[in-house]
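Following up on my earlier thread - several people asked me to post the actual chain instead of describing it. Fair enough. Here it is, all 597 residues.
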Amino acid sequence: MSKLHSRSWSWHFAAPADRVWPLLADTARFNEAAKLPRHEIEEQPQADGSVLFLGRARMGPFRLAWRERPVNWVANQWFEHVRDFDSGPLKLLAARFRLTPEGAGCRGDYILEASAANLAGEIILRGGFFESAGRSFSTLADTADHCALGERPTPFDYEPPAPTAELRARVETLVADIEASGHGHGLAARLAEHLLSAQEVDLSPIRPLRLARLWNAVPREAIELCLESTRAGLLVLRWDLLCPRCRVAKAAVGALDELPKGAHCGTCNIDYGRDFSKNVELSFQPAPAVRPIGFGEYCLFGPMSTPHIHLHLTLAAGASRVVAADLPPGPYRLRSLEPGPALDVEVTADGFPELIAEPAAMVAGPLAPPGEIRLSNRTNRELTLVVEERHWVRDALTADRVSSLQAFRDLFSDQVLRPGDEVAVGRVAIMFTDLSGSTALYTRIGDAEAYHLVRDHFAFLTAIVRQHNGAVIKTIGDAIMAAFAEPGDAAKAALAVQRQVADFNAAHPKTPLVIKLGLHEGACIAVTLNDRLDYFGSTVNLAARLQDESRGGDIVLSGTLAHDAAVAPLFEDLEAAPEEATLQGFDEAVRFLRVRP
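Reply from S.P.:
Thanks for posting it. Predicted structure:
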């Protein structure tokens, strides 16, 4: 058996562990900054449902092949990463990192272990391997500490490919075009510099909502920026079908009509479907002519590659373990990396329930003392147990959200589903408006003036819908149908419509407008109709019927929407009356709220 070589390093960080961890546990970013090569991962499903992860890479003169063990970690505390090599100079390489609180900061202890597979490996390990690694890691640790303290914008030094003068000039032209479109919002130059200077791990994928969060920008404006940048040629878009377990894209296409109805996740070894409201995401990458992105992984299992996972720990068959972990109260899911049952729990300050994996179930045992998590593998095989937040990907721009934005509808009207295809939308708010008395208006003021007034009314409605993060789906005569991903945005748009119409009527008493308006929210289906994305189902039908109940100048909203946490406060101080009526197409009486802005 070859000798195990080992070295260790310690660093003292001025920043606390919860600020250092997201930087140094971002092993993909760490590896890229350390100039390690990308590698390919092959996922081989096994008979017992588990997956074997086989890595391949080339480093200098050596072709490397290895088995990637699942990384073990407890968030904000420690991780360990082990590779077993089948070819190349090494037989084993293991990295272990632990953060320990130390005063206002913390101490980081890093252990690197390796054994040689042959004489070349022994020469490498007895040479400058550990010294070189130590210098690189120490430099990265120092810059990460300064980043955690807010003293530098990025955690690691990184040298991006130098753009040519011709590329710089072309990008500057594209930036000017994007800003001239009205969708740049003063952010186009910042995006361009991000594409040219950021690490590759920040560019594949590019999530507009993450950019908005990091730049302190309005989310809608960051989305519009990326959409316009795609049309200009600075970015390319893709539709990702995210796995519901690991939340990584396992299918990606460039057009909505190419989106599969489901996919297979080799990492989790499961088949899964699609849901516009949950796991269909629109993301972006730099256009290849601007910044080509390499193929492969910098790290498959890094803790920050799946930041919703707080604990990821492999236990042998029949083994139990107690780990120190202080997770905040909230909703969590207990599962294994391997296919199998999962259990949703609500954790309180009283403690975390024991995670027990049984042959046919995941069970919550007695509460552990605060600050501990107890794990038991009562099966006859090795399992990697997982504790994860139940919240979906924070920065995912889901299809239901982007398809209900006016800029997407305007710029990418060709992004539609295949004919006959339909996709579930878990939740959408629908608004119907109708211009009351338009026939009499034509008679009273003449066709030409009435036509211009009606046309201006559509532009006025579209502008308000866009300002409130919605989209006009279609017009029907003098009516519109609009959609919003968030109920609160729909309610605010409705209030803005009626209040601005009232202001218009006060200034134009001879040509007053009367708009009827209805709102409802719920599940529906998305389909392609008349070459555009459209929504159908009882949610849409009820919103239309509620608009019929409007008398003009008021807002009629369903009881469901009226009680939404984001909607109810908007109407607290307004004249509002609950009513009930039997509506066409609905067997039972429907309760709704009539509001006078």
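The longest helix spans residues 447-467. That should answer part of your original question.
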